[in-house]
Amino acid sequence: MICIEPDAKKDVLVLSENGYGKRTDLDEYRITNRGGKGVKTINITEKTGELISIQSVTDDNDLMIINRSGVTIRTEVSQIRLAGRATQGVRIINLREGDAIASVMAVPRARRKRPSRTKRAQWLQITPKRPSWRAPTTPRTKSKDNKHIKEHVFSLKD
Fold this sequence. Notes:
Blueprint lengths: L10 E6 L3 E6 L25 E7 L3 E7 L4 E5 L13 E2 L9 E8 L8 H10 L13 E5 L2 E5 L7
Antiparallel strand pairs: 1-2, 1-3, 2-6, 4-5, 4-7, 8-9
């Protein structure tokens, strides 16, 4: 069970043990009173398996999914499409035969800090790559269309 404020901008995320899941807008759920029988949130079949997790999420969350074999994935909640309340959902994670989801947790989205181009350029200026050069060899003469061209040959040290 989850408790969400009625005016919150959150979605309900459900995941089943066979890797199926969906996000549903909170407005699709009716408010129940004391003694209510509940509201159906996912169509449970043999294909989807039992319900593993129900969580309130926003687009600013990531989803950590761990299956019984120990494989962990992290995916953005915004990549999981919105679906109706009584549907079975879409495949979130491909599982091997006999494997199932063990745990699911909504976490804050990871913010990757990439260096800006100027900082990267400054870093490259501080630590330049300097190739090692051999001394130029003696000039050799090529004949091409009755013209003699002299060129110097340079090669990199290994």
